[in-house]
Structure formats: structure tokens, C-alpha cells
């Protein structure tokens, strides 16, 4: 099957198609196409596009071929390990892998090789997935960018911090890649690159060694809702959730499209920072939803939604500041041993933490809990919340200029993504819009634990817009 993403000059919703794993399964079962065949296709795309896109920091092609051959034998004998046996997957380089270095996009960790598997990596191996390599991340998962380019236009950012994972999927290099999010690091890159992506409910997928921050989650980028959902659901079945949290639940297969009864539109503090084209795009989505007979409400129609909007003011600063406090000990230890191995942009997080202090952190925690209480109170009134995945399409990024102050958000503004992180709720990027030949995602959010239902609403919305 040809991969149109290799030749497309502009992104148009529905006009491109990269091979998904889900559609390959019948061929695996019949033997007309194998996991090794799929891996070879992926490696061919990587060979063609990687020199431009720079999605990978480490490739493990020979071991991946061995894994794919083993999976091919299991499919031939009818003893596959899971529904994702043989799936080529990329792993964000924040997560430990026993057979590849984990350098976290940071000079201080160059060559670091802990030879351990993160929980999600362990689960993928148990499920028979083929680990192709490690994808580029921003420095320590923060704002300082790596070398990755947006596959749709190399002058634009792929987003961060899951830059390599988003770009690898968008370029058709792998059908699925693992990402992580604290502020907006899964959903924003997906919006910029045109991927399906899920940031699950807080704690729904075990983070392994990545337990330091209270708002970080592991999720997936994919070329289809089926691959996005099934991969994460299989993983959660093996790892469970974080300590004290329920695991991601629901069917193994992605739930079918389901029409919501009531949809709430959220503007958040990002509305004033959104481009006019992005606003027009989300307005078209809202009109299509309403035309389908769904009740559409916002702050003007519902006082609790209005209160929620008020509670979400300052959400981006709260998320960034709390995370700086939670990450400060790791940063202190890095700087103590390698003060020149971290960028000045990342070092500023230590100043933010010191200015906050324990009492300031506790104050922000109370503000966060109050916002969660308001959001939970809307469970009976709202099925799904809809907003933009980013203020606009991917911004251009050509590196720092010595004449200018460092950009605040060189990988893009996370303002539309921090609400879901702050509230600990699931969010999905649905690739439904395009602006100026670049993707622009629609972000949907639901109540904590309602991840499966949210996926079904996302499928419905995608089908609605495709038919419009």
C-alpha cells in the first residue's frame, strides 16, 4: 500500500493515509502480509525521510527484525501474544529501555544506558510489539526543543515534548509511538502533526520510574483511533495503573462511534491567543455537532461551565509552576554533577521552584482541587467537552537568535492542553482540521475514568466531519 504521506505537499484532512496496524491484522492472520513485512515498510520510510524529519535519536533495526520475525512465526502458528503482536512502535526517549540508551534529550545524559525497561516498554514487549527505537524528546521533557521537524513542513515545529513520537507517526515511520504529557506534550504535537492521540486519565497507565510529577501521563500517537486505543488498553491490562489509581478500562478494541447527547464548548484562557483561522475551524466543528441534533452549550448557557472557565484562568502558569517545583530535585542533582549539561531555559525552572516555595505549592494544589471539584460537578450535564488542540497550526522554529530573548514556547503554546493535565482528565486529539496546509487538531475531554466513552465520541466526531 503506498504511503501518501511521503509525497503530500499540503495536509488536508482525510486526504492522506499511512498503513495502520489494525487494518493489517486480517492479512497477518491469512499470511498474505506479515509483521516482518510491515517492519520493512516502516524501515524504508525511515530511510527515506529521517534525514529531514529527525524523529529518532536511536534506532534498533536488527533487534526489531528479530522481534518481527518472532511475531511472524507466532501469527503463522496462531499463538500471537496479544492484539498488538507485531506492531512497530517508537518509544519517547524519556522512558528507559534495557537495550537502548535513555538520554532524555539532555547533554547531561549523553550516553546514559540504565539497561532497564519502563513499565510501558515492558508491557509492549510482553504483548509482542516490535520496539523500533527511541524517538526524540525535548530536553528533559521540557520546553527546550530537539532537532525534530514537522513532516508536513520542515520549517515548522512538530511540537514538544513528544516531538519525535508525533513526527514519526505523522511521517508514516511507525503506526504507533509512545508519548508523555505533563502540560501539553501529547495533545499539542498531535494537533501540529495530524495524529490521533490520547492522554489518558491521570494514573490510568503505570508510569514506571516516571512518578515524580503529579500531572504526567503516558499515552499514544497513532494513525488511527483503533491503534491509539488498543495499544494503550493492552498495556494497561499488563501494567495496571499508577500506585493508588485505577487502570485504563474498557474494551480492548476501540469502542465504536457513539453520538453524545450534550457537548460543551470550552474557550479557556487560550481563546484570546488562538488564531482567527483556528477559531473559524472550531466554530465549524461546533456548528456541525449542533446540526447533527446534539445539544451544544457553553459558558453563556450554563453557570457551572462559566465557573469552570473562570477556574481555568491561569491554568498554564499553575501547571508549569507546580511541575517546576516537583522536578526541582532531579534538576538540582543534574546541575550538581554537570552544570553545563543543561540549557539555560531548563535551568530557569529551578528559579521558578525557589520563588514558589512549599507554601506556594500547597496554595496551587488547593486551587487545582477546587477546579477539579467544579469539573466533576458537570458529569450529569455534559458528555464531552470540545476545544482546540492548539492555538493554531505548528509555529515556525529556526532556532534561537542571539539578538533576541529566548522564545517562551519554542515548540508551541500549551495553553489549550494544560486544563486536561491540571484536571487529571482524559483528552484525545481528533485530526479534523487544517489551516494553511498544516494540521490543526480538535481536542475532546471527558471525566476521569471515561476514556473509552471519550474515544467513542471522538470517532463519531471524525465521521461527522468526514461526511460533512
Q: What CATH architecture of the largest domain would you give?
A: Alpha-Beta Complex
N-to-C CA distance: 27 Å
Q: What is the helix fraction of residues, given as a range?
A: 25-40%
Strand content: 5-15%
CATH class of the largest domain: Alpha Beta
Number of domains: 2
Structural class: alpha/beta
Any idea what the radius of gyration is? 21 Å
What is the overall number of helices? Answer: 13
Protein name: Amidase
Organism: Haloechinothrix salitolerans
Domain Amidase: 38-454
Pfam families: Amidase (PF01425)
In short:
Residues 38-454 form the Amidase domain. The protein is an alpha/beta fold and 468 residues long.
Structural description of this entry:
This protein has helices spanning about 25-30, 35-55, 60-75, 120-125, 165-170, 185-195, 225-240, 275-290, 305-310, 315-335, 345-375, 420-425, 450-465; strands at about 55-60, 90, 130-135, 175-180, 195-200, 215-220, 260-265, 295, 385-390, 425-435, 440-445. The chain is of the alpha/beta class and about 475 residues long. An 11-stranded mixed β-sheet has the order 1-3-2-4-6-5-10-11-9-7-8, with helices on both faces. Helix 4 packs across helix 7 (about 225-240), helix 5 (about 165-170) packs parallel to helix 6 (about 185-195) and helix 9 (about 305-310) packs antiparallel against helix 11. Mean pLDDT is about 95; it is low at about 1-10.
